[in-house]
Amino acid sequence: MRTTLLTLLVLSHFLGGANWMLCRAADSSKENGAAENQQGKEIQDLVGLAEKKVATTRARVKVAEAQIKIAEAKLIALKAKVTATEAASKSAETELQRTQELAARSQMPQAEVAKAEASRQAANALRDEAKANVQVGQARVELQAARRDVALAELAEAELRLKQLRDRLKQ
């Protein structure tokens, strides 16, 4: 009887320990499952953020392309202004030569020659300013193109990140 009681006591202790181990294993698997679910949820959230990043970066690319078109249109207007100021400069030069010839024959007062010279200088200054504005316009087009290139690179990076997150989510 004593041996049986001792055996029962050892068995109950062993079975109680085994029961505890089984309960702990079940809790551990629940914790692992919960951790995996939490990690999956975090990856889904990251995928959502990455999708938004891709969408906003695509919009930035479109904005940059529109800004390039605007800068190019402004450049066309600036080039037209150069053409107009070159014509005005040539006209002022011709007028100066005419007044100088007339003044040389004493048919035009020197004051008119001075006015014609001032008009020519003003026309040349406007022409030079218009040419400088064309250079600024060309630089703006290049700047907008560079911004588009940066946006395209960021878009490629965002799309790659999104692909990587989606691949992680599938695993």
Would you give an account of this structure?
With 171 residues, the chain is mainly alpha-helical. It has a single domain (2-170), classed as Orthogonal Bundle (Helix Hairpins). Helix content is 96%, strand content 0%. The chain has two helices and no strands. It has helices at 2-104, 110-170.
What are the SSEs and their pairings?
Layout: H1 2-104, H2 110-170
Helix pairs in contact: 1-2
The overall strand count is 0
Mean pLDDT: 84
Q: Could you estimate the helical fraction of the residues in percent? A: over 70%
Oligomer: single chain
Detail the poorly predicted runs.
8-23
Could you tell me the CATH topology label.
Helix Hairpins
Cα Rg = 42 Å
Number of domains: 1
Helix and strand composition category: mainly alpha
**Approximately how much beta-strand content do the residues carry?**
under 5%
Shape: rod-shaped
Largest sheet: none
CATH architectural arrangement: Orthogonal Bundle
CATH class: Mainly Alpha
Q: Tell me the series of helices and strands, N- to C-terminal.
A: HH
Number of helices: 2
Distance between the termini: 58 Å
Task: Spell out the key features of this protein.
single chain, 171 residues, mainly alpha, Helix Hairpins
Q: How would you summarize this macromolecular structure in one to three sentences?
A:
The protein has helices spanning 2-104, 110-170. It has 171 residues and is an all-alpha fold.
